[in-house]
Specification:
4 helices, six-stranded antiparallel sheet, alpha+beta, globular, Protein Transport Mog1p, Chain A
Length: 137
């Protein structure tokens, strides 16, 4: 319980979820504020997303070949920075998952938009739209 109450944790600002079949494409959107070490670590990953992709491809202590194809691309929206990511089974057969994140510093804190969904274009467009509306205000 102590680690959940510790400082330097993500503070949720907003959360929205839309699931098929009621709405398409399925999306989950979060806006969070990070502080301290969490803000610093997240900032580094958002500026160099290839580090995240490499870590996901080569989990520590595992000699197995990767089962997931991972692709990351830097993403910029005004002063907000981040990346898009796609995760797909190396064997195929399953639909890929898509994500996007955009962040912006607010003093020592880092405000971050996270979007996960079924369609790459919708995920990126939603991340950009939410970043414009929610970050840096």
């Amino acid at each position: 319980m102590r680690k959940w109450l510790a400082e330097d944790r993500a503070e949720p600002q907003a959360l929205s979820f839309c699931a098929p079949p009621e709405c398409r494409p399925g999306l989950a959107v979060a806006v969070v504020r990070l502080a301290g070490k969490d803000a610093e670590t997240t900032d580094r990953v958002m500026r160099k997303p290839e580090l995240l992709a490499q870590a996901l491809r080569s989990p520590a202590g595992q000699g197995k070949s990767a089962r997931t194809r991972i692709s990351v691309q830097p993403l910029q929206e005004g002063p907000a920075y981040g990346f898009t990511i796609s995760l797909a089974s190396a064997k195929g057969g399953k639909r890929p998952a898509y994500g996007a994140t955009l962040g912006q510093r607010s003093g020592d804190d880092l405000e971050v938009v996270l979007v996960i969904g079924e369609e790459a274009d919708a995920v990126e467009a939603t991340a950009r739209r939410v970043a414009r509306a929610e970050l840096g205000h």
